[in-house]
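Quick start: read one record
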Amino acid sequence: MAHVNIDSVSKEYQSGLRAVNDVSVNIRAGEFIVLVGPSGCGKSTLLRMVAGLETITEGEIGIGDRIINHVDPADRDIAMVFQNYALYPHMSVRNNMAYGLKNRGMNKPEIAERVAEAAAILRLEEYLDRKPKQLSGGQRQRVAMGRAIVREPAAFLFDEPLSNLDAKLRVDMRGEIKQLQKRLGTTSIYVTHDQLEAMTMADRIVVLNAGRIEQIGSPLDVYRMPQSAFVAGFIGSPAMNLITARGENGNLVIGDQTVTLTNGHGAPEGPLTLGVRAEDIRLSETGETPDLELTVSYVEELGSGRLVHGHVGEARLAVSLHSGGPLSDRLGLIFDRERLHLFDAASGQRL
């Protein structure tokens, strides 16, 4: 394994489109990093630059002690797992996994040993003589990972490898990939648009938006302390409630309702965006003055709880409740003052 250093890297196409803009990430040896963001944010382009499948317009990428900007993809000591598996349909599982090693001139006994070890790790022993068309989607993805494992690379690159799988299999496979990476200890860069995958798999998350980094941090740090309204609205399921507000005399004014802030948590004057997680809102009790009155639109029953959706004026809110009792059409809400997030209305940056 090796560290990967991405230093002030940009990618600009001839059309003038700047897909990646001045991105810097230092990935520690053995770390599992997830690049996450919406479609078109530049995450796959960045991964392809690490792999050598896209040229770098500006900046440097290093793997270990080597700068690899002009190194051929085959010589970068990386292994890539693609969304569409990229298996050879006419070859057996065994030969798919061995193919890259044969091309490198490795001797047959060592190839056989590496394939056998990878097959055992991935529970593929009984499928080694089958063709890809005889396998399920999850099994094909294991073969693709096996082909990467046998190379014993300095780094694994994953380009949305679970996108073609159904929901249940995705949950199973992301657990398997994470356990596999921990067992092998190989530095890994994983691209996904699914923030839940990012939260459950990453040592650190890199949130990208329009080619730039919005935030880097552990999953819980990014969830609990988003540094921008974009991150707050992207990370988490459901997304953080983002409410247009303004600060007046240290309090928050939302529409025609005022939320009083105390204990040193006063709001700055002027336009703001208030962020609050669904689980950080509770219902007001009898005799308690609510912060806001929610008009209920619909309720999602989740088994372990329920998600109440509604609106306060023009603002839409989701509230997470654990109780399953009857609900009225209008609910009084109380915010957890210690878990409110304020963002600048113009820049979206955390205040």
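The chain is about 25% helix and 35% strand.
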